[in-house]
Amino acid sequence: MSAKGPLSRRSEGIALAVLLQPRAADSRLVSVETAADGTCRLRARVTAAPSEGEANRALVKLIAKTLGVGASRVTIERGQTDRRKLVAIEGDPDALEDKLKPWLEGRS
User: Tag placement on the chain: N or C end, fewer CB within 10 Å?
Assistant: First the structure.
């Protein structure tokens, strides 16, 4: 998760750096954004409020649905109380990366 992009491959899946926007008009993955420090994150919007973990649960459901995996295979590893999150997704890294390509390449 650097200037190369928000995705890093792991033996058991991938890790995805996400910037979450709660209370949005719709729930969707948007595009990759690069911060001033060079950190890349995939921007995600959810309609849920950021209280009592609602926005985090909505993010997990959104990523699971987008990637076609069960919600139990998506875990927020870091950033439970922050907009900047590190999300782990279990599964075949190649297949998961392929499903994310439209957003990673700015074609969403």
Answer: C
